[in-house]
Write a structure and sequence with these properties.
The chain is mainly alpha-helical. Helices cover 69% and strands 0% of the residues. The chain contains 15 helices and no strands. Helix 4 (68-81) runs antiparallel to helix 5 (86-98) and helix 9 (189-207) runs antiparallel to helix 10.
């Protein structure tokens, strides 16, 4: 009598799913992940994080197969089990985008950027959603967004450590830059408070017209929190005032790494490029800005001025 074949463990089924995914067998991968989910749910060693990864992996297979509704369901399950899982946020965002649910996609892309401000796919997604929502809802599109959840600092630190640890399939969302950027360390709550105090002192100095002193305050603030966009754009404004145009460009570059469609960063970098007689770069920034806010009068006026310089 033939021996009964031993059933595979959930980890073996997950590995089979990963191998099928890598070779483009997405339907087969979905089946393996489904079996792995069943096995893990029956097991006494059920771990919410492991289960969350399996749902996220199956969501990736559904997304590759174009089954966006099922992808969203699995990402929802994954995010219930493993809160703020970056891969699940990006996969759900991509599925929402394919389903033309642009507001929800925007929220997920922005949430992912709170966890890691260097995710190129999330920056690209945010820019696409900004353009789509501006076309659909006009300049008031932000008012119609659902609330964007705030990611606690403790979660950011924990996820930053685990970001590359999970052996999940390759991320199916838009391709990231070939070179991986090093994350800036997540500031502690103490650093965040100190950064905020220094930034406010800088703001007070700007109001008095003391731009050089304000630059010092903003620089100190950024040492405590290098991820604060408005500190970069505020310091860029000061650099423009004291005619340090290259420094203004650098600060706007930093701000745009964090949020590629930041209006102040685009406008101030355009101003700096104009003063440096880099007219093409100035026009490029203003045209990008005007895709986000087509009726921005300051940008339209600066664009006319720049074109006269040609």
């Amino acid at each position: 009598m033939p021996q009964k074949q031993k059933s595979k463990s959930w980890t073996e089924l997950k590995q089979s799913g990963n191998e099928s995914f890598k070779t483009g067998q997405y339907g087969e991968a979905t089946n393996y992940y489904s079996q792995a989910i069943k096995e893990l749910e029956k097991s006494n060693k059920k771990n919410p994080e492991d289960l969350g990864i399996l749902y996220s992996n199956r969501a990736a297979s559904y997304l590759k197969d174009g089954n966006c509704a099922e992808c969203v369901k699995d990402c929802n399950m994954s995010l219930e089990l493993s809160l703020f899982n970056v891969k699940s946020l990006l996969r759900r965002a991509a599925a929402y985008e394919a389903l033309e649910r642009y507001r929800l996609a925007y929220v997920d892309y922005k949430t992912a950027l709170q966890i890691d401000c260097n995710i190129a796919a999330a920056h690209d997604g945010t820019n696409r959603m900004t353009k789509a929502l501006t076309e659909a809802d006009g300049l008031s599109w932000r008012e119609k967004l659902p609330p964007i959840p705030t990611v606690p600092m403790s979660v950011k630190e924990k996820l930053a450590q685990k970001a590359t640890a999970n052996a999940a399939p390759t991320n199916p969302t838009p391709k990231q830059n070939g070179t991986s950027q090093t994350n800036k360390p997540a500031p502690s709550d103490k650093d965040l408070k100190k950064a905020q105090v220094l930034k406010e002192e800088g703001n007070a100095l700007v109001k008095k017209g003391e731009h050089k002193k304000a630059i010092e305050k903003y620089s100190q603030s950024l040492k405590h929190n290098p991820n604060e966009i408005t500190t970069y754009t505020n310091r860029a404004l000061c650099y423009l005032s004291v005619k340090q145009y290259r420094d203004a460009v650098r600060d706007c570059d930093e701000a745009l790494v964090i949020d590629g469609s930041n209006i102040k960063a685009l406008y101030r970098r355009a101003q700096a490029h104009k003063e440096l007689k880099e007219i093409k770069a100035c026009e490029d920034d203003l045209n990008t800005l005007l895709k986000v806010e087509p009726k921005n009068m300051a940008a339209l006026k600066l664009l006319q001025e720049a074109q006269k310089k040609k």
